[in-house]
Amino acid sequence: MPELIFRQPDGSTQLVSAENGSSVMQAAIRANVRGIEAECGGACACATCHVYIAPSDLLLIPAAKEEEEDMLDGVCAERREGSRLACQITVTDALGGMIIDIPDRQY
Amino acid sequence: MAPGTVIIGASHAGIQCAATLRSKGYEAPITVISAETQLPYHRPPLSKGYMTGETSPENLALRSADFYTTERIDLRLGKKAARILRDKHQVVLSTGEKVDYKTLVLATGTRPRPWPGNDMPHGIHTLRAFNDAQSLRTRIAETSGPVVIIGGGYVGLELAATFRKDKQRDVTVIEAAPRILARAASSHLSNVLHHHHLSAGVQIHTGTGVTGFESHRGTVTGVRLTNGTVLDAAIVVMGIGVIPNQDLAEEAGLPCSNGIEVNAYCQTTDPDIFAIGDCSVFLMNGAALRLECVQNAHDQARVAASVITGEHQSYHPVPWFWSDQLGLKLQTAGLIPHSGTCVLRGNTEEGRCAFFHFDTLSTLTAIETVNQPALHMLARKILAANVSPTHEQAADPLFNLKHLL
Description:
The structure holds two protein chains of two kinds.
Chain A: E1 3-7, E2 13-17, H1 24-30, E3 50-53, H2 55-58, H3 66-72, E4 83-85, E5 99-101
Parallel strand pairs in A: 1-5
Antiparallel strand pairs in A: 1-2, 3-4, 3-5
Chain B: E1 5-8, H1 12-23, E2 30-34, H2 49-52, H3 65-70, E3 73-77, E4 81-85, E5 90-93, E6 98-100, E7 103-106, E8 110-112, E9 124-125, H4 130-142, E10 147-150, H5 154-165, E11 171-174, H6 187-199, E12 203-205, E13 210-216, E14 219-225, E15 230-232, E16 235-238, E17 242-244, H7 247-251, E18 256-257, E19 259-261, E20 273-275, E21 280-284, E22 287-289, H8 294-308, E23 320-325, E24 328-334, E25 340-347, E26 352-359, E27 364-370, H9 373-384, H10 391-395
Helix pairs in contact in B: 1-8
Cofactor (chain B): FAD
Protein name (chain B): Pyridine nucleotide-disulfide oxidoreductase
InterPro entries (chain B): FAD-oxidoreductase/Apoptosis, FAD/NAD-bd_sf, FAD/NAD-binding_dom, FAD/NAD-linked_Rdtase_dimer_sf, Reductase_C
């Protein structure tokens, strides 16, 4: 059960125990993390579970597939180098202690 | 405590409305009443990920159980609203209990259109709620014979895809209209999908109706078609559309047609009563529109919450919709015009293409995409900005549509 750190735009953080094999989005929803909307429930169809991963941490997780890359084109907040969709990132031990920043808006 | 907002229905619209109210700083009590007993859940996976077993019941939850406690949302599961007493601002539950409201939000959704015939043998399913999905899943596991799906709409086709691809079943789709998705997609997209299903081994009979069922000891064994054929069936799924749950509103004297009528603020004729999601019907460009999709549920919920908190946003949607079937990601943005021009971008044979729909004035009104999520996201922006490419620009994959924004 790696622990993820969700950080809101105001700097407040929330430590969340996530289950290996679930998605970062599911971990956030289960822990009631604000700012992750996930309207489509993980179908990679809505781009409302947008998060920012520190570029140095991106190396620790598999790169975004084409479908996710495509959907990232449509995120509402600013798209940055570390932009990902939380529903497409699988939780593994490698994510332990990782800071996941929540954008200022999802729609 | 003074009464606050009571929401009837705990699906996408109802829960989004409660969540948005709290995120906008609404402090009064919020009560959500649901006849279902499950923690509110995502419906789209019921025909896809949940049916294959890939999505666990826990991962269907719209929000965690914690969310309702933290946000002070009184979630009353397993309670049925029986009546609205508008003069007293009360909802009466089937138990006789009364719940006071200042504002009432109807997010009552829809129910499967009932089969017009009489006796229904065992083994005929519909799919709308979690319990329906449960019994269908059980029945699929317990049988091995052919599956007949009545109705070639999105739910029927998604189930056909799931049963064919993931369960290797013999699947036949029966559609009374001349083509599948006659109501929800253009003929061009119907065509692409039709061929895709055929190559996956799904049988499709269009322009064919159902006259009745064959059964043995009360369990369905076959489906009788209007052309005289009888198809063997171990399971039948009825996907012949839905009807809006508007009885409560009608009995309370609120105008209803095909849905509960609301204005651009999602209000009924009673300004203290809102209707949102699949159950509501509203005017867009002069036409009555009732949308059955997640986008509409969420966006109307946000509009209603904004009005309740005094912001008075109005609803000007770019409807969007998605479906995943047999490796195709189908996405639609906008509304397909009754008449106009359709321009193809890309190649339908390659499984990545888009149909641009223009009305008779050459204004772009909808884009249907196949395996082109980036283009879909762009389509939503282009339609929201009210800009139109020319037919030539639409057809040219090298023309960057971002230049229009």
